[in-house]
Input
Amino acid sequence: MSNIGSYEKRVEDFSWDTAREILNWKEGELLNIGAICSDRICRMGRGDKPALIWEGFGDRRSVYTFEDLRAYSNGFARFLKDLGIQPGDRVCIFMDKIPSLYFSFLGILKMGAIAQPLFSAFGDESLEVRLASAGTKAILTTSKHVKKVRKVRERLPELKTVVVVEGNPDRVREDEVFFDVEAGPRVDTFEVYPSGPETPSVLHYTSGTTGQPKGALHVHNSVWGQALTASWVLDLRDDDVYWCTADPGWVTGTSYGIIGPWSLGITQCVLDSGFTTSRWYRFIQDNRVTVWYSAPTAIRALMKDGDEVVRNYDLSSLRHLASVGEPLNPEAVIWSGEVFGLKFHDTFWQTETGAMMICNYPGMEIKPGSMGKPFPGIEATVLDLATHEPLQDPGKVGLIAFRPGWPSMFREYWKKPDVYRSKFVGAPDDAMPEELRTGGDLWYVSGDRASIDADGYFWFVGRDDDVINTGGHLVGPFEIESALVEHEAIAEAAAVGKPDEVNMEVVKAFVTLKPGYEPSDELELDIMNFIRKRLSPLAMPQEIEYRDRLPKTRSGKIVRRYLKALEWGEEVGDLSTLSDE
Ligand code: PRX
Output
């Protein structure tokens, strides 16, 4: 019997109190995610249980118990407090998936600061934009990545402290601090910050169509959504060994690679080495992984490597598989059923929602290609594209929308109240964020299109904007375009997603060159590397098309929609408003 049991019954009887019951948490108890994921598990007598099984490149392997997690997160909490970090300060975590990432995440929350995880493959410009926006006070990084921090530090006056948590202490500069939590004395007691449900916890940057990335702010109350979905959707149980393949630089890696599973006291494993099919299968085999949460791009990459290689490994420990981040194609669901004897269960959610919203549940019939049904307690619909009224007819395409008020919903876009407001329909202009979260007739609009069939299953159609989803990671075209025009040869640029067999989409750039520059393969490579280094490998265009002019509106705005339609072989639409082409 699965944890959720009957989906229909759970919908009928739903209350978020069930999350508190599962954790045996009583009103008046401390509500701090850092403590809930470590101290609390130890207090319940499970301190000796492995919390983190970590493997890196080569043969590097370490196992940490919940007691270790408690002591090392205390170590970070104490260290940051001694440095003068205040509750509410933003502390960035900028490192690979090493154990200190996990310890420091919980440590930051324990001392009341806001954890701001950033993907370690980000280049200096991606880093700078996000640190400047958040007014980040301290950054925790490693010798491997500190160079990028050094490059931008003098332009970030609010960034007071740079801490190197792994690497060579002798190469740390005078204006930086070295802190190896495992080398120091164990910190057995730390007075955890008395956070409440609305105390900010995590700040995740996410890309939109226009402007630079926005910081979605979450609060400690999110844990109820993350814990309950981890229990009912991932079906996590006490004896599981769980593997979430996501990097905590992205929301999946924190909501389900840290908070959900550890709040339930589940053993999880982390693989900090690049993707290869054989390494992944060996990791599952050696660690006897039972529950696996991954992404369609990874599944397609495994599929591409064929069925033969699967047979070289003993993957019989697996009992439940789930996926997130992009449309999970029906072939992938069917393939996994054939080779693993288990179907991947698709889940849909976003950085902003903080936890799963539309899912396939253990025990419920999977319709391959469908994202499933709303999580119990979540009111979801699709809204008419024009009128924003909920659509009644099955199969009609509209905007996916959710009724505000679920526990893990984002509370603001960092310092961007107007953009936050713009994500809600039915909101009076003067509505305060509090009303936006709880207000009666409002809908939070996700920015995705879908239809609902007669059985209530949701079917993803596509995004309602120009954001590029490459391998489950959102990349903002504006950020890429801004970086492109900083290249000496480029006059104007447009970035769009182009279809890709494995990654769903990859970035394609259309550029016009400045006088004196000629298109060449060499220039193309140079531009690609320029973006890879400044932004990230994800944002790097896989193709660059040189054009004499870019399509524009009469007011001079480049029309990405047109270029994107060309790439996807779609109707180009009404071009009468364009001044060129
Ligand atoms: O477009 C949807 C797509 O990823 C977006 C959210 O991205 P992000 O905030 O980075 O969070 C990713 C992981 C939670 C969505 O707006 N997306 C996410 N899950 C699915 C999906 N598209 C189709 N099917 C999914 N299951």
